[in-house]
User: What shape does this take?
Amino acid sequence: MPVWNPWHGCHRISAGCLHCYMYRRDAEFDKDSGVVNKTADFDLPLRRKRDGSPKLTNEGRVYSCMTSDFFIEEADEWRRDAWRMIGNRPDLHFVIITKRIHRFYVSLPDDWDRGYENVTVCATCENQKEALFRLPLLLDAPLAHREIICEPLLEEVDIGRFLSSGMIEKVTLGGESGPDARPLDYDWVKSVRAQCERTHTDFYFKQTGARFVKDGKTYMIDRKNQLAQARKAGIDLYF
Ligand code: SF4
Assistant: This one.
């Protein structure tokens, strides 16, 4: 999966951040995750190999800013250049997952109009409170493509009213990983799936997380099996 991390570092902003994977990984190297810096890969979309071909090639969606938040305050200036690079690579499709959709308009390029066709913005909602705050903003934002990420899902969520707008292309759902992972109840998964089915929205059960509850029983799932267990459920929807 192609990844582009133009900057690194972030600040916890909501309940879903509690066991942030980036914080856990940085801790292993004594790195301060709260300091936001541009990375050496900042201009990766523009870089070329010796033979002149682009380093970042069209091998699927480019997951962008996976060790920070694209809309974080510290990156307001850098984001102008990041958008410019994204606009210069219409052959790639950039996926931006954010907990800061409320900052979407800061540093937006002048030629944005109704949204670049090669950008999907995914708003995260881990609980009902964040769903009610973030999803209206996601629907209001001028975007060519919108998705919802419920990961780590922390409780049952009712997002049907947002899905019925017909503007959400897909919902991705998953649990939390790590030694202190909070549980993901399969009933919550089935509830979101049913909302997607009713509204003809694609649904992807990505992974179970480390602490998976089914029929009232808790299962500890090893990280290497979390994706495979979700696949086994066979409940994805594609319309
Ligand atoms: S917004 Fe994302 S990267 Fe930032 S602390 Fe929260 S989970 Fe981690």
